[in-house]
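We store sequence with structure; for instance:
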Amino acid sequence: MGFFIFGLIAIAAGLIICRCHKTSVNSTESFSGVVAGISEKILPQGHLLVKKYRPIVKFTMNGRTYTADHHRYSQIILHDVGETVIICVNPQMPKYFCYAEEEQPHSLTGIILTSCGIFVCILSIVFLAIL
């Protein structure tokens, strides 16, 4: 019975993550921007120190120019300084952006968590029926 409850909790958590992701995606707008710079940071990764990068983009929204940082650091530089890119920004929080090609309509984490929860529930029902 404990596994069934665990499965239900996983399903609920997965659905909440999917809902939050969908709300986040629906609240963003696309803008054209120019990569103004790239900030660097050295972060520990295991026993190593790794240099990671975060692009900084300038874009115009409602006649006002904003500077936004990418929402996370990465080891790969996708676009060079001066390059024009399409970004997605939440107008309520224009300090951070993601590239339009990064934005996914569904949350992979939420889908996996929900699927695992369903699998655990079915498995616990099968084991209860056998015993």
In short: The two ends are 12 Å apart (CA to CA). Helices lie at 2-26, 108-130. The chain has a mean pLDDT of 90. The first helix runs from residue 2 to 26.
